[in-house]
Amino acid sequence: MTLVLGINAFHADAAAALIRDGEILGAVEEERFRRIKHWAGFPAQAIAWCLADAGVRLEDVDHIAINSLPGAHRWRKVAYTLARRPDPRFLWRRWRNKRERAGLAQQLATAFPGSTPKAQLHFVEHHRAHLASAYYASPFPRAAVISVDGFGDFASGAWGYGEGTDLQLDGQIWFPHSLGAFYTAITQYLGFPHYGDEYKVMGLAPYGRPTRMEEMRRIVRLRNDGTYRLDLRYFRHATEDLPHQWSQGTPVVGSHWSGALEQLLGPARRPEEPLEQRHHDIARSAQAMYEEAFFHLLGALHRRHPVDAVCIAGGCGANSVANGKVTVATPFRQVWVQAAAGDAGGALGAALAVWHELGGARSAPMRTAYLGSRSDGDAVAAVLEREDTRRQLVEAGCTIRTLPEARLCEEVAQAIGEGLVVGWFDGRMEWGPRALGHRSILGDPRRADMKDILNHKIKRRESFRPFAPSVLREAVPDWFERDGDVPFMMQVYPIREEKRSLIPAVTHVDGSGRLQTVSEADNGRYYRLISAFAARTGVPMVLNTSFNENEPIVCTPEQALDCFLRTRMDVLVLGDHLIRRPA
Ligand SMILES: [Fe+2]
After folding, report:
1. Domain range holding 395?
2. Alpha carbon separation from 328 to 213, 331, 481, 497 (Å, rounded)
3. 363 domain-assigned
4. Residue 311 needs a FRET pair 20 to 30 A away by CA distance; which of 299, 381, 402, 525 works?
């Protein structure tokens, strides 16, 4: 038996994953325990949880893999530095970051005092870990593989080919050229300053028209070999010491764009300023530019490896709008995106890379993302039996009932159909950024006012951001213009035109929906709930948003209950228990 622990550390979305003989036992992001979104630093609690859940100690782990290789591409970095003469602080920061990663053994000793780990340490280059996380966890026996992100180990993209247990890396895009950096720069320019705000620009894009493509093509220049270069005049990250923060807390990313971008596109928007048509058009143009460059790279990859399947990873792998178009915009016919496409996924990728480098058999496909904290019936019952919990629920006038599953699904389907907001907490927590029916808030997709109800009662998020549907797998071709498995909500499909008016709450302004496909084999109870809703309404889907309120997704039943009590959620399902607020 071989245990490999994978870690993403000293970067945003710190995470840990544990695999045994190639089988994924558990995978979880540190943010869920620390309760700070995208938490960056050393994932001590995630590691501790993975070990405890598997019933092993740190001493039992044979190999520890981290998704970074300090000193990778040293000569490339030296050559770049000599040519560009960047700010000395920039060099200091990079050196410090490298030293932190190299001090991994020390970090483990601090986090697990008294332990004497015997594991061999492996440093897996950042993009090799991304590629491994996508290919080895995929269901494909062979596939082209691509990774696109901001930066990691001096590169921003990589591609290659996987077959059986082999995964070859064919090429990379080097610092400072980066599609992720481009998207981040536009995101910041449009007045969204926080780490991870890029998805807001993706959500905003359909409100605009691609009127600024000429300018975008000046910023990102496609090359004949399938790669691309940035015009560095519009950026600051190449030469300046941007204030980054990657340790012990919320990640902070310095402003990427330069004054030249304002000369090209007009004045930048400050966060408090209203969003105007001009901003919508820039968002749409940037998304279109991203897609143009991404599909250009995929086209070159397919020429090199003319296979049907492609696996996608890296922070830009979360661009579900682009992912959803791959089968129509490129020759690839099958797309698979791992649940944690971003840097958290590098923890899993590093572990899978090491397992296969050791000669291990091909790992089993990741069929579901339910790889995190467990919450069995006893744990939920224990929370509900606590005196303070009872008192809080009684004071709020709530009823608590324990129901058999069929009855529970019936009542919840009815509540959703009445326009109520339901917190749905069941089984193991999801790995990756999406709630997939285990830590979800559910609503009626048929109601045009559902978005307002959710924002009013719980979410308070930007009105332009869409909500997503969880759809019975077999119903996808009836409701969407494309068909396929999208178990991790990583692709956006066009909704059939005649169906759009039936499900306004999950139809984005351009007629698209970021679907999650739900099958009975992989997600029995959630499937049966949606089936109960379909039987009542003829609509085989529910609106699904993450179970949280401006915080990381809830992890424990206590946190779910706490979120229910401090918001105006109507119903909370905790395992077999149904809790209702008075109307
Ligand atoms: Fe990355």
Report:
1. 377-580
2. 21, 7, 11, 18
3. no
4. 525
